[in-house]
Description:
Layout: H1 3-57, H2 62-67, E1 71-73, E2 76-80, E3 83-87, E4 93-97, E5 100-103, E6 110-114, E7 117-122, E8 125-130, E9 133-137, E10 142-155, E11 158-170, E12 175-178, E13 182-185, E14 191-194, E15 196-200, E16 205-209, E17 213-215, H3 221-230
Antiparallel strand pairs: 1-2, 2-5, 3-4, 4-7, 5-6, 6-9, 7-8, 8-10, 9-10, 10-11, 11-12, 11-13, 12-15, 13-14, 14-17, 15-16
Amino acid sequence: MTEGNASKSRLHALPNQARTTSAKAFAHSRNIRRLRILLPLIAIGLVAAFFLNTQKAEPEDPILREARQMTATDDEWVTANPRFAGIDESGNPFEITARAATRNPAERDLVELEFPQAVQGENSETTVVKANRGLYRSDANMLELIDNVQLEHTIASGTYTFEAPNAIVSINDDVVTSDNGIGGAGPDGMAIKADRMKAYNAEGRVILQGNVSMRLFPKDKDDATKNEDSE
């Protein structure tokens, strides 16, 4: 190839190279524009996913979990055999069961219970309270019992049983309170009456106030004889 022909070839090739360079530059610029749009969208998606995962990781309110199993009846939610369990602020377990539960959607923190029963504590120190009707307040973690309230409080010294027209179970404080007159029995057949009662499950004690009456019954003759022989 002569020198003239080579020069002509280089001259003809210049426009094609310029067009190729221009096309690459255009494609690169278009990719940059796409990234400017996509990157903010990806960032928003990651932030949204983070918050969704954070919400899912939070412990679920047992009342809200039970609500998902409730069936709608008119303006109320009803479920059979509900069970609410958890740990109070002192780290002690508690459990609330009932034959049925009803909640009005307008008052999400209130659940009406039929034949509720609450159990607090474990091992040798437990409190069991039951009644014909009850109202659980999830915002305060409190159970109000109405009609034929029966309480069984077990501590190291023995088991005490009480009956009252109503009572309040404070789950967080691990305390059962009754202010409308109580009657019951203690270890060895002790008969008990009082105007007010407060049972501290975590501390293993019961406080009676107002016209307190306690009657101690003698043990059986055989038991008394055994005690005399052992002395």
